[in-house]
Every structure is written in C-alpha cells, then in structure tokens.
Design goal:
Oligomer: single chain
Structural class: alpha+beta
Largest sheet: 4 strands, antiparallel
Shape: globular
Number of strands: 4
Length: 191
C-alpha cells in the first residue's frame, strides 16, 4: 500500500513539474515574440523600420526596393539617380542617408531632438514637425558623405537639386529647373 502511495505522489510531482515547465516555455515564447523586430509583430510604438523609411548604410538612389527610396517623388528620385551617375563618373560615391520618412519616423526624430536640445522650439531649428517635413511628403533627400554634398552644391542645379536649408549641407530638394540657379536657402535657426 505504501508503494502505491509513493507512486501517486511521484505522479503528482511529475504532473506539477510538467505544468510548470509548460508555463515557463509558453512565457518565454510570448516574451520572445514581443522582442521580435519583424513588422508582423511590431506594434505602433516600436522603433521605425524600413517600412517607415529607415535606410541602411550605403543606400543608392537606385535601391528602389526600399520604401525610403521608392516613396520619393518620382521626379526627385530620377534627379538624384542622374546626379548619382554623374557623380560616380567623377569618382564620388553618393549615399542617400534618408529619403521618404513616415510620420512616425519623423515624430521620433523630433522627439530625439527635443531631448537633445532641451526644448521643442530649439529642436524645430533642426527637425521639422511631421506635417511640415518635406521628407514625409517624399520631396526631400539627405545625402552623404560630405564630398557628395559638396559635389551636389556645385553641380546639383544641373539636375534641379538644391540645398534648401542653410544649416543642413546634406538636405536637397528639387527646387529649380535643371540648369537654372538655385533659390536662396531657408535659415531655420532664425525666428
């Protein structure tokens, strides 16, 4: 009789261990799914991703499989592609560091600038509101490295591309007819 009682206790203990193990594995799987950065599990409060316009390093204006390039205004994208080809002939490699951005991405950039500069007023000298950003509409690109920015400042007007913000040598928009002079830049640091 004592042996039957021990077997029942062992069975109960094994059932408890199995239940705890099962719950632990389920909890780990749920936590892992929450940490998964894939778009299928990412919530609206997650960090911006490629779908929001985040571009990997060394992105070309020809990388049209990326939303940050594909969602640019077609005329702007074409002008940047033409400039990239001409720049390559001069031995300079252009990189689109950012193109089209979602409102979510732009809002995150503004929030980071507010934390960095200590006030929204100061942050707005460097980052536009989502409803004001030309990146959100697909009408602006940021270009790098510096030698590519310099090349575009000297030759970009041949493609209609102009630096539009005096405090951002990397920010270009399609603001003139190809071959015409660029309009004066905006100075966002002036009130």
């Amino acid at each position: 009789m004592l042996t039957d009682h021990r077997i029942a206790n062992r069975t109960t203990i094994l059932a408890i261990v199995a239940a705890v193990t099962s719950l632990t594995l389920t909890s780990c799987a749920a936590a892992s799914a929450q940490d998964d950065p894939s778009p299928s599990t990412a919530g609206p409060s997650g960090p911006p991703r490629a779908a929001d316009g985040v571009l990997p390093d060394h992105t070309s204006a020809y990388d049209t499989s990326l939303p940050g390039i594909a969602k640019l205004d077609p005329a702007l994208r074409k002008a940047v592609q033409q400039a990239e080809t001409a720049m390559k002939d001069d031995g300079i490699k252009l990189q689109v560091t950012t193109g089209w951005r979602s409102k979510k991405y732009q809002e995150e950039l503004l929030d980071k600038a507010i934390r960095k500069y200590g006030s929204k007023k100061k942050a707005l000298e460097y980052v536009a509101e989502p409803d004001e950003s030309h990146h959100v509409t697909g009408h602006a690109v940021d270009i790098g490295p510096t030698d590519a920015d310099d090349w575009l400042n000297r030759h970009g007007n041949l493609y209609g591309l102009c630096q539009t913000l005096s405090n951002e040598i990397w920010h270009f928009e399609l603001t003139t007819k190809p071959g015409n002079d660029c309009p004066p830049m905006t100075n966002p640091t002036k009130n």
